[in-house]
Amino acid sequence: MKPKILYLALCVLGIIVPYWQFVPWVSQHGLNLPLFVRELFATRIGAFFGMDVVASAITLVIFTRVESARVRVSNRWLVVVSVLTVGVSLGLPLFLFLRERELERTQSVAHA
After folding, report:
1. Is the pLDDT of residue 20 over 90?
2. What DSSP string describes 17-79?
3. Per-residue pLDDT tens for 79-104?
4. How many angstroms separate the first and last alpha carbons of the chain?
5. What CA–CA distance (Å, rounded) separates 88 from 77?
6. For residues 36-48, b (16+ Cβ closer than 10 Å) or e, as one string?
7. How far is C-alpha 77 from the chain's CA centre?
8. Average confidence (pLDDT) over 57-75
9. CA distance 37 to 32
10. Closest by CA position to 3, among listed 111, 96, 108
11. R_g over Cα of the chain
12. Residue 112 has pLDDT above 80, yes or no
Protein backbone atom coordinates (compact mmCIF):
# COMPACT_ATOMS: atom_id res chain seq x y z
CA MET A 1 0.00 0.00 0.00
CA LYS A 2 1.30 3.42 -0.93
CA PRO A 3 2.05 5.68 2.04
CA LYS A 4 -0.26 8.34 0.64
CA ILE A 5 -3.25 5.96 0.74
CA LEU A 6 -2.29 4.77 4.23
CA TYR A 7 -2.15 8.39 5.46
CA LEU A 8 -5.61 9.06 4.01
CA ALA A 9 -6.96 5.99 5.79
CA LEU A 10 -5.39 7.26 9.02
CA CYS A 11 -7.11 10.63 8.45
CA VAL A 12 -10.48 8.87 8.35
CA LEU A 13 -9.60 6.89 11.48
CA GLY A 14 -8.34 10.10 13.10
CA ILE A 15 -11.78 11.66 12.64
CA ILE A 16 -13.93 8.64 13.55
CA VAL A 17 -12.17 7.53 16.73
CA PRO A 18 -12.17 10.85 18.65
CA TYR A 19 -15.63 11.89 17.48
CA TRP A 20 -16.99 8.46 18.47
CA GLN A 21 -16.54 9.70 22.05
CA PHE A 22 -17.07 13.42 21.52
CA VAL A 23 -20.40 13.40 19.64
CA PRO A 24 -22.32 11.55 22.39
CA TRP A 25 -20.82 13.89 25.00
CA VAL A 26 -21.87 16.97 23.01
CA SER A 27 -25.36 15.55 22.45
CA GLN A 28 -25.69 15.14 26.21
CA HIS A 29 -24.03 18.39 27.39
CA GLY A 30 -23.96 20.70 24.38
CA LEU A 31 -20.83 22.73 23.63
CA ASN A 32 -20.23 23.48 27.30
CA LEU A 33 -16.50 24.35 27.24
CA PRO A 34 -16.13 24.95 30.99
CA LEU A 35 -17.61 21.51 31.67
CA PHE A 36 -15.45 19.98 28.96
CA VAL A 37 -12.25 21.38 30.50
CA ARG A 38 -13.39 20.49 34.02
CA GLU A 39 -14.08 16.87 33.01
CA LEU A 40 -10.88 16.60 30.98
CA PHE A 41 -8.77 17.70 33.95
CA ALA A 42 -10.90 16.00 36.64
CA THR A 43 -8.20 13.38 37.28
CA ARG A 44 -4.43 13.39 37.00
CA ILE A 45 -4.53 10.76 34.27
CA GLY A 46 -7.06 12.84 32.31
CA ALA A 47 -4.84 15.90 32.77
CA PHE A 48 -1.85 13.83 31.62
CA PHE A 49 -3.61 12.94 28.36
CA GLY A 50 -4.97 16.46 27.92
CA MET A 51 -1.56 18.08 28.34
CA ASP A 52 0.05 15.44 26.11
CA VAL A 53 -2.38 16.31 23.32
CA VAL A 54 -1.80 20.05 23.76
CA ALA A 55 2.00 19.57 23.62
CA SER A 56 1.64 17.28 20.59
CA ALA A 57 -0.60 19.78 18.80
CA ILE A 58 1.87 22.64 19.36
CA THR A 59 4.73 20.44 18.18
CA LEU A 60 2.79 19.39 15.07
CA VAL A 61 1.96 22.98 14.12
CA ILE A 62 5.62 24.00 14.45
CA PHE A 63 6.81 20.90 12.58
CA THR A 64 4.27 21.58 9.82
CA ARG A 65 5.56 25.11 9.38
CA VAL A 66 9.22 24.08 9.29
CA GLU A 67 8.75 21.02 7.08
CA SER A 68 6.35 22.82 4.74
CA ALA A 69 8.96 25.46 4.07
CA ARG A 70 11.59 22.79 3.38
CA VAL A 71 9.46 20.54 1.15
CA ARG A 72 7.13 23.28 -0.13
CA VAL A 73 3.92 21.63 1.07
CA SER A 74 0.87 23.57 -0.07
CA ASN A 75 -2.36 23.95 1.90
CA ARG A 76 -0.58 23.56 5.23
CA TRP A 77 -3.29 25.72 6.79
CA LEU A 78 -5.54 22.66 6.53
CA VAL A 79 -3.38 20.97 9.16
CA VAL A 80 -3.90 23.83 11.63
CA VAL A 81 -7.66 23.79 11.00
CA SER A 82 -7.77 20.00 11.45
CA VAL A 83 -5.83 20.20 14.73
CA LEU A 84 -8.21 22.86 16.05
CA THR A 85 -11.40 21.07 14.94
CA VAL A 86 -10.48 17.41 15.50
CA GLY A 87 -7.00 17.06 16.91
CA VAL A 88 -3.58 15.62 16.29
CA SER A 89 -5.21 12.35 15.25
CA LEU A 90 -6.30 14.07 12.03
CA GLY A 91 -3.66 16.80 11.75
CA LEU A 92 -0.63 14.51 11.69
CA PRO A 93 -1.80 12.03 9.04
CA LEU A 94 -3.18 14.92 6.98
CA PHE A 95 0.19 16.65 7.01
CA LEU A 96 1.95 13.39 6.14
CA PHE A 97 -0.48 12.92 3.24
CA LEU A 98 0.12 16.47 1.95
CA ARG A 99 3.88 16.04 2.33
CA GLU A 100 3.87 12.66 0.55
CA ARG A 101 1.77 14.09 -2.28
CA GLU A 102 4.28 16.93 -2.73
CA LEU A 103 7.25 14.55 -2.60
CA GLU A 104 5.62 12.34 -5.27
CA ARG A 105 4.95 15.40 -7.43
CA THR A 106 8.50 16.64 -7.03
CA GLN A 107 9.95 13.22 -7.87
CA SER A 108 7.77 12.83 -10.96
CA VAL A 109 8.85 16.29 -12.21
CA ALA A 110 12.52 15.44 -11.53
CA HIS A 111 12.25 12.17 -13.49
CA ALA A 112 10.45 13.79 -16.44
Report:
1. yes
2. HHHHHHHHHHHHH-S-HHHHHHHHTSSHHHHHHHHHHHHHHHHHHHHHHHHHHHHT-S-THHH
3. 999 999 999 999 999 999 999 999 99
4. 24
5. 14
6. eeeeeeeeeeeee
7. 12
8. 95
9. 9
10. 96
11. 17
12. no
Band (107; pLDDT cuts 50, 70, 90): confident
What pLDDT, on a 0 to 100 scale, did the predictor assign at position 108?
78
CB atoms within 10 A of CB 85: 10
Distance CA 7, CA 103 (A): 14
Mean pLDDT of the chain: 95
Domain limits, the chain:
3-111
Q: How many CB atoms lie within 10 A of CB 27?
A: 8
Task: Give the model's confidence band at 1: pLDDT under 50 very low, under 70 low, under 90 confident, else very high.
Answer: confident
CA 32, CA 26: separation in Å to the nearest integer?
A: 8
Dihedral Cα 97, 98, 102, 108, nearest 10 deg: 40
